[in-house]
Design brief:
Blueprint: H1 6-13, E1 29-30, H2 39-42, H3 48-51, E2 63-66, E3 69-73, E4 79-82, H4 88-94, H5 101-104, E5 106-107, E6 115-116, E7 122-130, H6 132-137, H7 145-166, E8 170-178, E9 182-191, E10 193-199, H8 202-205, H9 209-212, E11 224-230, E12 244-245, E13 264-269, H10 280-309, H11 313-343, H12 345-361, H13 364-370, H14 373-400, H15 402-419, H16 423-443, H17 448-463, H18 472-481, H19 485-499, H20 505-513, H21 520-523, H22 526-567, E14 580-585, E15 589-592, E16 595-597, E17 600-602, H23 603-610, H24 621-629, E18 644-649, E19 661-663, E20 669-676, E21 694-698, H25 699-709, H26 713-719
Antiparallel strand pairs: 1-14, 2-3, 2-7, 3-4, 4-11, 5-10, 6-10, 7-9, 8-9, 10-11, 11-12, 13-14, 13-19, 15-16, 17-18, 18-21, 19-20, 20-21
Helix pairs in contact: 4-11, 7-22, 10-11, 10-12, 10-14, 10-17, 14-15, 14-17, 14-22, 15-16, 15-22, 16-20, 17-19, 18-22
């Protein structure tokens, strides 16, 4: 399908565009923005048409979203490079005590040895189109905030479904670029069959562990290779031995010579969510409620999960992905809290908003339109803050308990069955598919002992909430048991969980696969009923939350509009998991006064850290043997007399950029992005060249490990590195 540039035209018709681009190196630019940036002046040696060509093939055709991370095709046979941590779950799922690929690594030097990466899919951006007029047209005369947000969502979903109906095999989504202002329809090709090809051993792929997570200097070989497969006719289908490697329109060329300090570099990828255009009141919510609550909860959870995981190797593997994800989030959130406090971002934004209000008041036209804008926004956020303890608990309860998640899935199905006019037809159509897609995968991750202790914590926390934030399901337990809080919590987590029918997976499976319409099996189950009460409360507050979201949808759109007039500049929309470009330079920084961090690390640093008697710093003995011998092959940096392991650059990245290809001025692959420095964890809220640094694994280390440590010369051959 031909790519369209309608977004480019419509986007700038809806903003106050000026003749100059945003500050160099700062910004996660939508692909439509690329032609507006003077990349040649910045250092790019290829044309912008080579980056993005709406009428042909370009570098963006080599980019993929893989399992929520970024990645890129690096061969004509669908080979993908991404991060080790992006395939971590798939590797853990493929592992067993007898074949522990997570610890020992995995390589398939023949195609038939490649194994299914369960849970991973690949998504490729095919094209996009601005649909702001269509979406906003349905709410032009709508006053009710809840109705506004409902109609926007319905219209967005309608446009996506209509697009999918036009083009079989395409998935479509409408993404909100600027809240309440611009909406873009993206078309994606999704590949369902993804296989593991080469993953280094954990001591390389996760070297430094949580000690080094979000920290520079870094020595982590955070890379992995997978392959996309399709049916022989090119259609996307689930895993099958009959499938063949996908032939991408474009794949990246690897430059085994790497880069040097101050070289121009850029990234294409799928960054997650940023909040740079949110007001001071939102940042207060993050700083006072969400960030501390989640970081403390996940810290507690991980301590309990690690204890439970010591039971046996299978349990440890089962819990490993969850522990890793939790640890990543909690350290990131604590970094954000530290950064927000260090730069006093709330105070900065409040001062800016005070000036903005003066600007509004100084112009009668603006005053007529925006005089109460900031006041109205702050009132909505005050309501959100008041409900934050309850809402955060409700947002985390199903993430905390796998068994409750199963109960929730069962309740969703039962609600559909109850509302159906023909129950037999409903079960025939939905039963088996629903079980296989929504319930069986949850059972694969169920560790009952972990559920008991984590649920105990959540219930205990609920008893501490004030009357305005009470959890109805927990209050019901207390009323039913008529005892102490500790007593009814222990009774539920020890007895009700153990006695739940949901513990019997076979019985649940039989209900779905036999297309039963007799629900008595579930009617008196206390875990299922607990989930129902949670859902009843979520439904009861949904209208209130929808009204708030509807108000903010309009207010935040107006907030950005008037700020653009105030600043006399156009803004780059916040990241929203759509394809973006960021560019900058390989560059060190000064994280604290008097301490300069160089932009490269080497194998020498691995060995130095290995002397610190920290289990996170264990590494394969072969690395030291080769280092002592000076056996660096063609991948040594002459100035360092070492192989560069990781590199640092001042590009603007966030979550979702993990696995993004780091490219040189000629668009050649020289590294894979995987992290930020601790000071840059606040990139979601603010970016500054002085402290915002991102981290990638150097291509030279990837190739050296593949060739010298793992004897994976087949990878080098496919990459065209001789």
């Amino acid at each position: 399908m031909k790519k369209t540039i309608l977004f480019f035209v419509a986007f700038y018709c809806s903003t106050v565009f000026t003749a100059f681009a945003p500050a160099p190196e700062e910004g996660m630019f939508p692909i439509s923005e690329i032609i507006k940036i003077d990349l040649a002046k910045a250092g790019l040696k290829i044309s912008t048409n080579d980056l993005y060509n709406p009428n042909g093939t370009s570098l963006i055709d080599a980019l993929v979203n893989i399992g929520g991370c970024s990645g890129s095709f690096v061969s004509a046979d669908g080979l993908i490079i991404t991060n080790h941590h992006c395939v971590f779950d798939a590797v853990a799922n493929a592992s067993s005590p007898d074949n522990d690929f997570l610890t020992n690594g995995f390589k398939a030097d023949k195609r038939e040895l490649e194994i299914e990466a369960k849970g991973l899919t690949v998504r490729i951006t095919e094209s996009y189109e601005d649909v702001s007029a269509k979406v906003l047209g349905v709410v032009a005369n709508i006053v009710d905030p809840a109705e506004r947000i409902k109609l926007i969502q319905e219209k967005s979903n309608q446009l996506a479904r209509e697009e999918e109906a036009k083009t079989p095999g395409i998935r479509a989504e409408v993404s909100e670029m600027f809240i309440g202002r611009t909406y873009v329809l993206f078309r994606y090709k999704t590949i369902q069959d993804v296989r593991l090809v080469y993953v280094p051993q954990r001591e390389i792929g996760e070297f430094g562990g949580e000690t080094d997570n979000w920290v520079w200097p870094r020595h982590t070989g955070d890379f992995a290779f997978a392959r996309a497969y399709v049916a022989p006719n090119g259609n996307s289908v689930p895993y099958s031995k009959a499938n063949v490697p996908y032939k991408p329109k474009k794949h990246l060329k690897v430059n085994a010579n790497g880069v040097k300090e101050e070289d121009f570099v850029f990234i294409l990828g799928y960054p997650g969510i940023t909040y740079r255009h949110r007001p001071a009141a939102y940042i207060k919510y993050e700083e006072n409620y969400r960030l501390p609550y989640i970081s403390e909860l996940y810290d507690y959870q991980n301590k309990q999960l690690e204890i439970v995981g010591k039971a046996n190797k299978s349990t440890e593997l089962l819990l490993s992905t969850r522990i890793k994800r939790n640890a990543n989030v909690l350290k990131n959130f604590r970094g954000k809290l530290k950064g927000l406090n260090a730069i006093s971002l709330v105070q900065q934004k409040q001062k800016e908003e005070d000036e903005l209000q003066k600007f509004i008041d100084s112009d009668n036209n603006l005053k007529t339109k925006y005089s109460s804008l900031l006041k109205d926004m702050n009132e909505v956020y005050a309501e959100i803050n008041a409900d934050a303890p309850r809402d955060l608990w409700l947002a985390e309860i199903y993430r905390s308990s796998t068994l409750l998640s199963i109960a929730n899935a069962v309740n969703i199905y039962l609600a559909g069955l109850e509302n159906s006019t023909n129950k037999e037809a409903f079960t025939q159509l939905n039963g088996k598919t629903f079980y296989e897609r929504s319930i069986a995968p949850l059972y694969a991750n169920l560790v009952l002992e972990a559920d008991k202790c984590l649920l105990n914590k959540m219930l205990s926390d609920a008893t501490l909430l004030d009357n305005a934030n009470k959890i109805d399901a927990v209050e019901y337990l207390y009323a039913r048991k008529k005892g102490s809080a500790e007593g009814y919590i222990n009774s539920f987590t020890q007895n009700e969980l153990k006695n739940s029918i949901l513990i019997n997976q076979k019985a649940v499976e039989d209900f779905f696969l036999q297309n039963s319409i007799q629900t008595i099996l579930f009617d008196y189950d206390q875990v299922i009923n607990f989930s129902k009460r949670i859902n009843d409360q979520l439904a009861s507050i949904k209208l209130i939350k929808d009204a708030r979201d509807g108000k903010l949808n309009k207010l935040l759109g107006e907030y950005v509009s008037v700020k653009e007039q105030f600043k006399k500049s156009s803004f780059i929309p916040d990241a929203n998991r759509t394809l973006r470009l960021t560019y900058g330079y390989v560059r060190g920084y000064e994280p604290v006064d008097g301490t300069y961090s160089k932009p490269f690390t080497g194998i020498k640093g691995i060995i130095e850290k290995g002397r610190l008697n920290n289990p996170d710093y264990t590494y394969p003995k072969k690395i030291k043997e080769l280092y002592d011998q000076g056996d660096f092959g063609r991948f040594a940096n002459k100035d360092m007399q070492d192989v560069p392991v990781c590199l640092l650059y001042n590009m603007d990245t966030t979550g979702g950029n993990s696995g993004s290809p780091v490219m040189n001025a000629r668009g050649e692959l020289i590294g894979v992005n995987f992290d930020r420095a601790y000071e840059a964890t606040i990139n979601d809220y603010a970016w500054n060249e002085s402290y915002s640094r991102s981290i990638g694994v150097d291509i030279r280390y990837i190739l050296w490990v593949a060739q010298k440590i793992d004897k994976a010369d087949f990878i080098l051959k496919e990459l065209g590195v001789e």
